[in-house]
């Protein structure tokens, strides 16, 4: 085929899903995994097993990494440094922004270029219409390989700073993880009163479905730095946040989450935002004074 060969290192659920998508598109896919048996399934489906990381690097210019963190990259590629020259390493593993920037430098010193990727769906949705992937790193390198990367998930290049894809990924998971905990907390509050989770479900669903309605105005106010408190003030909403702490205490459930929210309101009020909109909480959330 005319499709470029691809190497995939790291065959957890995500790596295996990517291999299958690429095989389905007719790429020659070379794989390597620390635990060799984890490659068996995709090798049976047509992937080529490399005996060593160096062999895996030699097989393709484009090398995808799907690992637990960036340390795993050093553990694997550190033993095959001589084979890194000329490679484009697309690291789709999670880590901190600084470790991501450090990795770009480490690879550059060895003649390789780094594209950072953050996949926004679980393994079963890799390659589906819902899948999208944040990328950052050299735009020209991204452009050269975008067509190969596209079937994994809609590629979205966010900028040249390697950390950007990692930051977008974490920002999205910041919303996701916090929201999941909020849902579980609210469900626990009602269950302590004997209301089943399935009874609460349609109400929780409605709240989640309408949340995005508030974001457009919020983003504009954050950029303008003005937070007009028209219909709902920080003082009013802060009182509600305090009532949720009280209700949680009475129900004997977790207090950490509602206390964190109440603290945002209390600090915004202390900073003079009592009559402003809830969006003024951005002022206390976006900087730490310690
Ligand atoms: P797994 O934890 O299942 O797989 C991790 C891979 O990393 C395995 O191949 C493992 O090898 C390898 N690995 C870990 N540490 C080392 C090491 N020190 N040396 C060599 N190899 C190592 O991960 P997933 O497939 O679930 O996820 C991969 C990445 O994708 C993660 O960064 C995750 O945050 C991200 N992600 C995951 C999603 C998901 O739903 N699973 C969704 C979106 C992103 P071995 O098999 O030998 O243990």
Overall 3D shape = elongated
Please give the number of β-strands: 8
Largest sheet: 8 strands, mixed
Number of domains: 2
- In the CATH hierarchy, what is the superfamily of the largest domain? NAD(P)-binding Rossmann-like Domain
> Which CATH class of the largest domain is shown?
Alpha Beta
Q: How is the CATH topology of the largest domain named?
A: Rossmann fold
Q: Could you state the order of secondary-structure elements as H and E? A: EHEHEHEHEHEEHEHHHHHH
Bound molecules: NADPH dihydro-nicotinamide-adenine-dinucleotide phosphate
Going across the major beta sheet, what is the strand order?
3-2-1-4-5-6-7-8
Distance between the termini: 58 Å
Mean pLDDT: 97
Number of distinct helices: 12
Q: How helix-rich are the residues, as a percent range?
A: 40-55%
Radius of gyration, taken over Cα atoms and rounded to an integer in Å: 23 Å
CATH architecture of the largest domain: 3-Layer(aba) Sandwich
SS-based class: alpha/beta
Low-confidence stretches: none
What percentage of amino acids are in beta strands?
5-15%
Structural account:
The structure is a single chain. This protein has 290 residues and is of the alpha/beta class. It has 2 domains: 6-160, Rossmann fold (3-Layer(aba) Sandwich), CATH 3.40.50; 192-285, N-(1-d-carboxylethyl)-l-norvaline Dehydrogenase, domain 2 (Orthogonal Bundle), CATH 1.10.1040. It is 51% helix and 12% strand. It is built from 12 helices and 8 strands. The protein has helices at residues 13-24, 40-44, 53-59, 70-77, 97-109, 139-149, 163-191, 197-211, 215-224, 234-251, 256-270, 282-285, and strands at residues 6-9, 29-32, 48-49, 62-65, 88-91, 113-119, 132-136, 154-157. It has an 8-stranded mixed β-sheet with strand order 3-2-1-4-5-6-7-8, sandwiched between helices. β5, α5 and β6 (113-119) form a beta-alpha-beta unit. It is elongated. The structure holds NADPH dihydro-nicotinamide-adenine-dinucleotide phosphate.
